Amino acid sequence: MKFSPNDNCFCGSMKKYKKCCKTFHDKITFPKSALELMKSRFSAFALCNSEYIIFTTHPNNCDFTQDLKSWHSDILNFSKNTRFEKLEILEFIDDEVESFVTFKATLFQNKNDISFIEKSRFLKVEGIWKYVDGEFIEEEKK
Length: 142
Known about the structure:
InterPro entries: NTF2-like_dom_sf (IPR032710), SEC_C_motif (IPR004027), YchJ-like_M (IPR048469)
Structural class: alpha+beta
Shape: globular
CATH topology: Nuclear Transport Factor 2, Chain: A
Strand content: 25-35%
Oligomer: single chain
Helix content: 25-40%
Number of domains: 1
CATH class: Alpha Beta
Distance between the termini: 34 Å
Largest sheet: 5 strands, antiparallel
CATH architecture: Roll
């Protein structure tokens, strides 16, 4: 996939990537809230940026491993085989140390809809937000 820093960011901000999540991905600045981290992680997955995903994952996360080669490979495999269509923020509960973001990720693998809703938990560790875990939420049928 060809992607330019002048393209709109995947996080849904409607800003150019270079003025949005790229500054986080390049570690020029760090997300000031768990919401910013959530959005920047979605963009990182869409851009196959496994290093950022690993950097922003809390050690208590079940995917966290010292086997970085395998972890990078798993993230890249998922990212390369997934189309990241849209991120919708449904709820944001902000606090100074622990925050929650409920979101809907619209994703496709091949032509299969693998979209989901998750309530994610984030902790601030030494001034940097990290993704700890998430709970899938059943989507209400209309």
